[in-house]
Amino acid sequence: MKKYTNFIFSNKKILFILFMLLNISALIGITQIKLDTNFSSFSPTSSIYQDRLDDLESIFGELNQLVIVTEVNDLTDTVLEDVHAIQSQLSALGSVTYVEGAAPDELLINGTLVPYASLSKEQIINYYAVFEDFSPLKIEGDQYTYVYTLFITDDFTASNITAIEDILDTYSYDSYISGDTYNQLKITDYIIKILLLLPPLALIIIFLVFRWQMGAIKPTLLSVLPAGIGALWTFGIIGWIGNEVSILTAIVPIFIIVIGSADGLHFMSHYQDSIAEGKPTKEALLSTLKLVGIPMIVTTLTSIAGFLSLLTIDTESIKDLSVYSGVGILLAGIATWYVLPLILSTGINISRKNNKEAKFNPAKSLKKLIGLPSLLLVLIIVIVSSLNYGKINNEFNMLMVYKDSTIVA
User: Fold this and answer.
1) Domain 2-39+215-354 CATH assignment equals 1.10.60.10
2) How far apart are CA 167 and CA 165, in angstroms?
3) Which of 84, 229, 302, 408 could crosslink 103 through cysteines, CB 3.0-4.6 Å?
4) What's the pTM value of the predicted model, to 2 decimals?
């Protein structure tokens, strides 16, 4: 530990430059991250059902479709013009090869092609009545539902989805979009929101909890810094090696931040205590590393082992989650050893603002559970868990990844 501490103090400038270069490189890598929105990433790698689907697609090709449903309350002339305009605009979109719907340019009536615009409400209803369940015009009481089936090409992208939504937003009718392609492209929005919102939110929550323990802002920031750096470096590596981030692996930064920040808290707490005892910076760092260095390595390795155990699950996205989380926790551990001593070697003031004992001390409350109360508590947890284990719901369909409040659900 002494040699390592001397190395940090002797090479501060070089190590700071290296630290900045690593962060810049990671940021560049993040800009190159690709998003995986394919539902197949949730499937087992060796699935007989996926193999059968692949065989069918290799023979017959892929049949990519979107289904749009538009609800209207009546079939007035204005409504008929609007639903025809919607179908015409959808047909004109790039990457849309054909639109099958109830409002084409012409309908074949009695062997004659009749312009849709010249048809009355009754003629349209009578025409589609013979289609029964296969009719693209559904009638339930006073509710008329137009169904548009869009046949799309392989280069259909999120920009096409936006164009469709813009067309539908032009009109005041309730419209809904469905289809695997649409759902997969919509996952992109979810992944971006997860990456932009949840990791910062996790950092804020942990910061507030650690602030209560550390007694000052600077040591609190330093406590969570290694975990944040670990998440940054991990996603930088993902970007540089060209791997993709799915809706499942998008939550990896949360695991890294929550688990990786524990070592930072231990390190800073003991360093604060050493400084409070009057030790100089170098000696305080040395004593802290001697005290918590090995335990930090052990906790890092055990956390990594826990995530790597997920590699036994034969699903690509779970394996990615396992590897990314393990690498992230490892990098957070390295950052704790590298970044914290480097910053603290500058002599930054991390003392508590006041040393008064907190009014509420959970440690004292927990001491009351030592002995028989703790055994009873464990027994209650085991009994309740055993009784409710069979009630776990393992049902899964792809729509479950969407919130009920979204248009997809």
Assistant:
1) no
2) 5
3) 84
4) 0.73
